[in-house]
Design a protein that fits this description.
The chain is mostly helical and about 130 residues long. The chain has 3 helices and no strands.
């Protein structure tokens, strides 16, 4: 059986890169959300400190509530694009696995090698 080491290495490097990108994207998103929440709270705090009446205080709280609602709505819209991105990423990973198995089967010269390809596939799918 011809060596699958270069293909396996490429697949592992690709999957590791995808995972690192996923994590860095999540961290970036969380950081953005936290910064926005801090900004909302700081603006509400400033408004409340400057309020001279109950009416002004209530207006500050109302503005804070609206800002939080707007941020939540914005996050939902982002979540849809993230969900699509995640689904497409999973499809790409499955395609990569299938191509790897296909390549293994194409290179198999004996029944044992063919069985080994199928066993590798079943082991990989059990891990997922």
């Amino acid at each position: 059986m011809k060596s699958l080491l270069p293909i396996t290495t490429i697949i592992l490097v690709s999957m590791t890169t995808l995972l690192a990108e996923d994590i860095s994207q999540k961290i970036e998103n969380e950081s953005f959300v936290y910064n926005q929440k801090i900004k909302i709270l700081q603006e509400a705090d400033k408004c409340i400190k400057n309020a001279d009446s109950q009416v002004e205080y209530k207006e500050c709280k109302s503005q804070e509530k609206e800002a939080k609602k707007a941020l939540k709505s914005k996050r939902k819209n982002v979540s849809i694009s993230e969900a699509k991105e995640k689904a497409l990423s999973k499809i790409d990973k499955r395609i990569t696995k299938l191509l790897s198995t296909k390549k293994c089967i194409e290179q198999a010269d004996t029944k044992e090698e063919l069985k080994a390809c199928k066993k590798d596939k079943s082991k990989k799918s059990k891990k997922d």
